[in-house]
Amino acid sequence: QSVLKSSGKDLYPDWKAGDPVPYAALCTTFSKIEMTTKRLEISAHCSLFMRQVLRLTPDDLLPTTLLMIGKLAADYSGIELGIGESLIMKAIGESTGRTLKIIKEDQQKIGDLGLVAAKSRQNQPTMFKPKPLTIRGVHSGLMKIAIVEGQGAQGRKVDEIKKLLSAADTNLPKGQAIDISTDKGGPSEAKFIIRALEGKMRLGLADKTVQVALAQAMVAHDVSLKGEKVPSSEQLKKGEEVFKAVYNELPSYEVIVPALLKGGIWNLREACRLQPGVPLKPMLAKPTKSLGEVLDRFEGKDFTCEYKYDGERAQIHFVAHDAAQNYAAATVAPAAGKSDRGISNIFSRNSEDLSKKYPDILAKLPNWVKSGTSSFVLDCETVAWDVEKKHVLPFQQLMTRKKKDVKTEDIKVKVCVFAFDVLFLNGEALVNKPFRERRDLMYSAFDEVEGEFSFAKYGNTREIEEIQTLLEDSVKASCEGLMVKMLDGIESHYEPSRRSQNWLKVKKDYLAGAGDSLDLVVLGAYYGKGKRTSVYGAFLLACYNESTQKYESVCNIGTGFSEVVLSELHETLSPLVIERPKPFYEHSTGKNDQPDVWFEPRYVWEVKTADLTLSPRYRAAAEAFGGDGTHKGVSLRFPRFIQVREDKKPDDATSARQVAEMYRKQEAVGKEKKISVDDD
Ligand code: ATP
């Protein structure tokens, strides 16, 4: 079976092994993936394509992988797409000789810019056949679009998009028809280019599936090099495990894929290890509603209760100059802090480079790194600090700091770093060591400096009264509550990118019965009434479904806003108005359920809710609860606006899976209560 052949005939007769792989071939695979919801089939298409690229033109494996996950580079590079609708429409119009008015009309009718582009290309007579698009050509074209900055950037972006679109769909082999009468649209290159530009491929192809496919392709390749036909299921499983372990520690295809090509899958563990310069995805915590729940979960085990500081997650990386040559990747990330001692970076919870936001932290780093410490990766929270009164300030203070190009001399809000974990120290990865040991190592490698660097306060106790006191003390110290963590054994290892049962968060407001807190994406708004006529009075919010890459509506919200906040929100949201909902917005189609305006997905808000219920009007986690044809999703009752989460992007919003979990938990508790009441 070949992705470059159909019924035994070459689809691309002029193409030969080693040549850049046609983008159309990848689009055909995308189209097949899109046509099925079966996980195994999706994975098989993906892995088959990768295997062939590996055999025929291995140099294309990296751009293929990146285009499959809909990214251009690792997150820490800061290079990403997510181009606004108006720019894309302009480019489609200009590249296909159609007016903006017609493009807008098409968009109104079709609702999917990818299909609008496919249709526009299809109806356009081409005088000459441009050179076919290649995978690496599309990747580098998209890259140019993503990194253009400065004066005239918008115009240059449009020009680059036009270049890609003009060559799209002109060299489709026979039998590879584009059919926009179906809502999928077939293997149109234009369609997939637009989706990449929008930053949502919507193939139902989860990052994890691509990882498994890549691992399997590597195992199959290895087996075929040895003259065997197919790998055994154990070999495949082992390959997946190796890949997963490596990716968890070093989530960068730019480093991993070249290593795979050089040494194969079985040498990957040796070739790629956690290293300063490449941020790991942080371990996350599960929420709990009572100290009783914590004790139940950790029964019989030793655990620790740390203050939960209310600031911004920060992963600080450092490597001394004389050790830097050991870490190729240290130079991959844009190293921002250079001192006499070494190179350092700070990354956010989404692996964004925060070095330009916190030059003050990097400048003071030599004050608290002990002289014998040559390299490290620290997990910390940066917290606003009152220099005079010498205590922690609320989160809102921190948010007033500028985000980019901060000059140390202009900084008004000072920050202190509170370190709670060390993941790498002096050349050694520590993620697979017990937390107790990691913590000891952390204490041995750094010095506390008041107002600059501290270790997170903690108490190791199993006594509920003592935990209660710790919780109260943490709140008095302007913290949000406690983080409770396992201390020993495999359960206390650091689990990158996992929301783990072994880290529990206890927030004071959860305990006060104030309900759940969620971070939601703003999709639309309703015009205000009465006093609020000149602003938006209520909003439609959504959670994020990671597997479908769609935003699923979860509530309307009109409470918790002051007049000032409403007018600020009106100002920031108005420029984001779009013609109609994006195809990746899931919401009831009922006539009365539609907001007055829709927005580009840009903002995340923290919202509190009394409880959750099921409603046909919303679509959150509808896969789990509305499968019986009722299309019911989970929705929030009495939601209240808390604040804008500047530190979160739409894809970091509370996930549909988390919403489902919250709902199930609430139902389970509800039942328990009912039973105990009945028992009485
Ligand atoms: P999420 O809801 O995705 O977990 P969040 O940013 O809303 O993320 P919380 O859920 O409130 O955060 O709690 C986890 C966060 O708490 C961590 O990501 C970290 O930024 C912060 N934090 C503060 N103190 C600690 C600590 N001692 N240990 C671990 N995390 C801490």
TrEMBL record:
Q: Where does the record place Basic and acidic residues bias?
A: 663-677
Residue ranges constituting the ATP-dependent DNA ligase family profile domain according to the UniProt record: 408-545
Q: What EC number(s) does its UniProt record assign? A: 6.5.1.1
Q: Where is this region: Disordered?
A: 663-680
Q: Which catalysed reactions does the entry list for this protein?
A: ATP + (deoxyribonucleotide)n-3'-hydroxyl + 5'-phospho-(deoxyribonucleotide)m = (deoxyribonucleotide)n+m + AMP + diphosphate
Mention one GO molecular function: ATP binding
GO biological process assignments: cell division; DNA biosynthetic process; DNA recombination; DNA repair; Okazaki fragment processing involved in mitotic DNA replication
The family line of this record is: Belongs to the ATP-dependent DNA ligase family.
Query: Could you identify this protein by its name?
Result: DNA ligase
